């Protein structure tokens, strides 16, 4: 995926209001090359430590994220940078050292009316034991998802009612049962039962057999 190095002045366009001034000092105190990239299915952001060939910190963030997701992802990667500065490569990427740094960089943004109430409540709970990705925390992921730009027909499997149909991978499924983190669903053409993670985005379709002909 092509990446383009980002001017620090442009960073403000992707952040929630009044947060650029809080983020900018990291870039003034450290040599960081920030790049924005189009959507990557497996990661929201990435950090690479300095090497002999690239003697600077490298951070990339997906450009399609909403401002709140963008800020959290950027802080996630900055926490990796701070962890590397303190411990180099002697600790686990998302171990207790990184968790401590992430809480440290995230805390100044809490209680400042930067995040909507639903995101902040989920974020505070998430801070107790932050995971490798916000996608790993269903409550935070769902709260952030509400502020994404998306087609009205697209929903999370968790948000569908039992009995509703949805399209995924070119096939139509019926939601049969809501479980804790997954949903039991049946493919309407093969009648096979599959389990979908509740935070998977799918296209909601009408109960109309012509759509699966």
Cα shape: elongated
Q: What is the overall number of helices? A: 6
* Rg result: 20 Å
Order of helices and strands: EHHEEEHHHHEEEEEE
**Mean pLDDT, nearest integer?**
91
- What's the N-to-C terminus distance? 36 Å
Give a short account of the largest sheet.
Answer: 6 strands, antiparallel
Count of the separate structural domains: 2
Structural class computed from helices and strand pairing: alpha+beta
Main sheet strand line-up: 5-10-6-7-8-9
Helix content: 25-40%
Q: Low-confidence parts lasting 5 or more residues at pLDDT below 50? A: none
How much of the residues is beta strand, in percent? Answer: 15-25%
How many β-strands, per DSSP? Answer: 10
